[in-house]
Design a protein that fits this description.
three-stranded antiparallel sheet; mainly beta; globular
């Protein structure tokens, strides 16, 4: 998971997290909240990301 620039991260294989059923706990453009599957032989976790309390999210 990365919250980053839509033109930079896709070149490394990142895709919108929503394609994997992953969401952020805040409003974010779909093309900026990205995910990369590291092991395609395993099921990809789905749901809303939870940040540690220190992030204040």
């Amino acid at each position: 998971m990365v919250l980053g620039h839509a033109d930079y991260y896709p070149r490394f294989g990142f895709s919108p997290a929503s394609q994997f059923g992953v969401t952020a706990p805040f409003d974010v453009p779909d093309d900026s909240f990205l995910a990369l599957v590291l092991d395609t032989t395993r099921e990809t976790p789905r749901g809303e990301i939870q940040y540690p309390a220190a992030f204040g999210v």
